[in-house]
Batch of 2 targets.
Target 1
Amino acid sequence: MNGMDRIVIEGIGGIGGFGCGVSDLTRALTGSACSPGTFALPTGSGTVTIPAFRADVSRLEEFIPARTLRRIDHFSRLGLLGSYLALADADLPEAERSRVGIIIASGYGATGMTFAFLKSLIEDGDVCASPTCFASSVHNSAAAHISIQLGAKGPNLTVSDYHMSVPSALATARIWLAEERVRRVLFGAIDELSDLIGYIRYRTRDALTAAPMTPLRTEMETPIPGEGAAFLLLAREGAARGGYCTLDASTTGSLPITGGPFPEPGLLVLGADGCRASGRRYAAVARNARVACYTSLYGSMPAGPAFDLAAAALILKGGRVFPSPGAVSLDFPATVPAGGDPVGADRISCLTLSGDDTYGLTTLGRVDSP
Amino acid sequence: MLPLLKHGEVLCTIQRMSVAPIAITGMGCICAAGRNLPDSMEAILRGERNPAAPVRFASNHPVRYPVFEASGFEEPTDLPRTSAFALHAAREAVADAGLDRRTFGALRVGVCIGTTVGTVVSEETFCRGYLAGHVPDMAPIRRILRCNPADVIAREFDLSGPRQTVVTACASGTDAVGIAGSWIRAGLCDAAIAGGADELGRITYIGFISLMITDDSPCKPFDAHRKGLNLGEGAAMLVLASERALRRSGMRARSFLLGYGSAGDGYHQTAPQPDGAGLRSAVSEAMATSGVSPASVAFVNAHGTGTPDNDRVESHVLHDMLPGIPFLSTKGYTGHTLGAAGAIEAVFTAACLEIGKIPANAGFETPDPEIANTPVREVTTVRGTVALSESLAFGGNNSVVVLGKS
């Protein structure tokens, strides 16, 4: 993709445990308290309450009439709210909305509807299984609702690669813009915390305690499940109307990272989510780097890397690093700048690790950088 | 020139220029028609099809809807059936391309796979146990999370390039092929294994029945008496390669991926836009990027599910945009294989171009007065160097690839 215009992040829309919109996200990043809520999870031995970063989608009614929302499930509502927030943040004119391409990344998809369909099938029988739940259970249901509400008739893609969904989908977003398929891509990552995912998280983690997430302390197991949506409106630099930063590169591959460790790492934002095993891998890859980590503001979820990108974009726009929550007394073999420190370079990279050897690396730059 | 879009629709993608063709050096396929591509092609050209009530799973639904199972395929216990299909087809495609681990090692190879169920984190036995208040075994969930089809293929061949699992419902396989082509043109990788895979299971079977779009008899795409689709399962994979990869590996182009287009309807979750505007945009983009004229199109492998809505919309678009060009649906031989469909139909399209003939549109007998054109009714010799393969999907996704003869 040599020679193409740079890509600019024009708008950000985010909802999660921290709140709703750029102002809430900035407030959380700046250091306001952001405590997890709870999730009442039915299990075989009764209801268990686990900590969780839940997202409140009630503000969606500012954009879409409540009547229209009646048959739209939580997963798609997350996507719709993220979309409208990003478009509003970029102040994109109505007339331009129908011309955006849509790319959605989701680790788990519409699991609430998937489970609801299974429940209808199991409890009501094969003849009475719910067609509404089945139709809404497809992974691309949120992308469909977004395109319907926006009247967007451009290319429309949904990608699901678990924890690598965001960097994988971003690579294709960059290509769409490079190929000039579209002038803008509305890129979003969505994951919901359904009963099914909550139960799977409950069963697969050593502990789900209410203790704060400390992803930069690798001796501790502190993941707290999250849900939410983070959307970025991307445009070629020539077409962009201002913006937060540039999206310079997005690559995925197998470790070790070739040509690295990292391109001019003014700061490396880590997707570490409090899981001990993955935390150790992050520590090994990011050894001696200058790092930050903000996952404890939105929780552990495959969509998390999109929130990392939003945080990095806000840092580049403001020129100052946000404090990494829970970084006191860390055992992480890297430098963690204090809140308010200058970024110190023109670029920030966001690192996502998955499994034993897979990585995603996305690099953002200052709009006025060379 | 292509006809203009109908009904005042504006082509919302930027006007595209033609792009460089990408070589297809290997193909593999497994479906109800056969365990590999040559067997499948022989079967569909003989007109064989064997839809039957499902054997691999039970249902207490009083109607036994016919399906197209890939009979005789037993997946290894450590892989979900979808990933096992994907791997089976990938091995055939890689062997067909003349590749081995050594030649792969010299290339940066990506994997782009379309699926609908391959990344769904649910399993009926697990959910039954959970709902019953038991503590269900986590093994099926762990296996799903470990065995995303793109990851399985990348691990098998030790590939270091980009990986992506496309989940645009029934357009997934077509999108995966088109996206992999873009990766290669953009230099993200030298070559790619691209395609689609999906298994047929109880959940999908009951789900489609609940939507009342399944036919209780063998499906009849484009027929006046069509009542819906029959589900199928399987996978198909293509090895795509850059010029550089051809030089370095000694692979030869079997055919070409010439163009790709996709567009959303922005209309409805499960029904196609009645005027087919999204499909028209996708066809326009695919034709524009391929740089070919309608006169060189030998045939169209249509989505042709056999549902009243799909076939009506699709045939009108074909009649308007590619009038007089032979078209068919191969779903009468394979069933609707969902995320695999676009890939299976792409390899059938390329294989048909190679031999210069297409099979009959199985199940078609009676022309529909609402449809202006009719599919081919018998094995037909085709002339022309390119062909289109189309996919329409839930969510309003429309995707088209243009394939060319070597």
Target 2
Amino acid sequence: MQVIVSVNRFNPKDNNGKYWEDYNLEIEENATVLDALIKIREETDGSLAMRCSCRSAICGSCAMRVNGHARLACNTKLADMTDEAGMIKVEPMTNFPVIKDLVVDQQMFWDKVKQVSPWLQSEGPEPKGEYVASNESMNQLAGVMACIMCGACVSDCSVMEVDKNFIGPAALAKAYRFVGDPRDSKSVERLGVLNEYSGIWDCTRCYECVEVCPKGVAPMDRIMALREEAISVGYGDTMGARHADVFSDLVEDSGWLDELRLPIKTVGIFNLPALLNFAPVGLRALVKGKMPAIFHHNVPNVQNVRNLFKRVRNDQNKDG
Amino acid sequence: MKFAFFPGCVSRGGCPELYPAAKKVCAQLGIELDELQDRGATCTGAGVLQEKNQFLGDVLNARTFAIAEGLGLPIMVICSTCQGVMSQANRRLKTNPDYLAKVNEQLSEEGLEYKGTASPRHLLWVMVEDIGIDVLKTYVRRPLSGLRLAPFYGCYIVRPSDDLEFKLYRDREDSLERVMEALGAEPVDFPGKTRCCGFPILTINEKNSVQMVANHTASAKQLGADALVTPCPLCHLNLDGYQPSAMRQTQQDINIPIIHLPQLVGLAMGFDPKELGLSRHIISTKKVLSKIQVAV
């Protein structure tokens, strides 16, 4: 098949900045994006820089953006990605500094992973053999242990695009792997650190990382599990945890969301600076007739909803 | 065509202009609506309640699905977030019979049971899949020719694509652009169209949230868009309500109107902009309206 691979190129040694270069090539129908790039490098343009190794979606080296989303080039079929004109667009991952062409600097990525102390910290006397964990307890971690550290989730993360301090989906998924490990004795301390600014509560829940992860790690789901765990071990005094609490209470009370009370109760009714911060937005909304109703009504038979909340919570408490 | 209508909280709360606009458009399209919230259906949890208790969230959504099943009607929503949260819950309920049984145990006291037949759909998808683009075109009385519009989907109506059954319904991927074209407008492709608006972290990290607003609105404007169009009222709250903050934070003039999808369809149908609530936006819609020679 005939394809056009359009590559976003960059070489710090020349002064061209970033530019697009199109390569026309004839390649077999079942070729991957990586096959095409290797063919270009070997037959057309030896100056094209990229990383690759295993060609089997195991090493995580060849993550890059294909048609605007991060993917592993080695497990992406070219034919699935070409448009009507037979073209695909290949770019380096975003949220990483580009070294050359498709090669990015991963230093920041590894620094963030190191930040979550990605090793087992157990307590007590060392066992004679291995540290033993039951199959059941480890099953829930199997998915997250499939991570190959390719960086695709970080590349497409909405928050890292605006805030380089955010610890990010890959490091948080790695943190979950140790928080959830029954042999680790530092889970509560780990959650304490993750609960701080730039940690678990800064995620926007946009699902970009879930969508692009080539190994089904679902980093965002792990971040949500860390939030639930942080609240359950007592780290409830964050804006994020309060927001979830107040949201749940308001739905329990009336069946649907009271949008006027949600922000006020989340920041606290005595938190004057935060309330004043809402004033301009509130005023603009009021002027335009966009203010939610002051007297919020209940859904019909709201008692059924309240009973349901109580029943679910009681049963969950009974089950521990 | 009749649906069990789930308008969500924001369309009658922070974006009160959305609910009447959606009702007018549906009536014009011949879509009959049976209001689920009048029958006691609750908020979906919006993914926020789920942070604390996902099971409880799934019970609430299963309850809404069961009420709709009782009516014998498919569910229609007008909010990307409602769509996504319902679709995610539905996938968990439909793919795990033991889990569904556990959820139904909670509903049984109210005499409800979710049988697993629901398939909630946004008005956007209903227009593309049930009504059809060609039929939609026949409702246009005021073509939006000359308008350049940037689509802004909202995360939960595009991801996770498996939960939203994108492989089964191929048209969902560019549904918003197709509707814009049917109404006579020109879609402007821009990098932010499936990105996050920042709303979920507004109370947690306002600076980051507002920066997202600035990036998306400024890039749409730079590409020559007259307005952004969204099927998500939560995106609207941030992109419209916090655009003044975004302009201040990034020290630039943006001022690009954000239009709800039903408002856009209503405009093309010939409704008066005031009826559609187009005067109730924080960022004025006047420039867009004057471009199609309508006064507000």
